[in-house]
Amino acid sequence: MTKRFVSSSSANRAHREKISVFSIPNCATDAGQSASYRAQYPNARFEIVELDASSIGRIITDRTPEALLVIDVALDVPCRNRGIGTALMRRVIGEAHAAGLPVRLSVFTSNSAARRFYLYLGFKAVGSSEINTTLEWREPSSSEERMR
After folding, report:
1. Which CATH superfamily is domain 3-147 in?
2. Residue 56 CB partners (closer than 8 Å, separation 6+)
């Protein structure tokens, strides 16, 4: 079991939280959705997110030669809007940046809160259907950096 720490801080919070992210073996996930993800993404990394030794969510990623795919991110409702999701995604973006890869993910078109969150992090829409919007984060080009 691999353990990594992700720091989360919020402007309205005076303390920093330590969030643990653990890789989990095949047998440690729920059977339904995770089995489907494992079939579609056999090399994916399934990780449990913990805060104060309590499981608060999961993140599933798959690193391909073309991109780092975010397959699923789920946080318990009381743990949302505390900077934890931002910290997790910044870790993913940092990993992609180090590998020279974009980050890609898909959100339900009807999930406007998720779309706003990812746009805030610098993702851009690259495709859509009635059901899903595909978003991608890429390292800004030097010309984009100069415009900021």
Report:
1. Gcn5-related N-acetyltransferase (GNAT) (3.40.630.30)
2. 49, 50, 75, 76, 79, 84
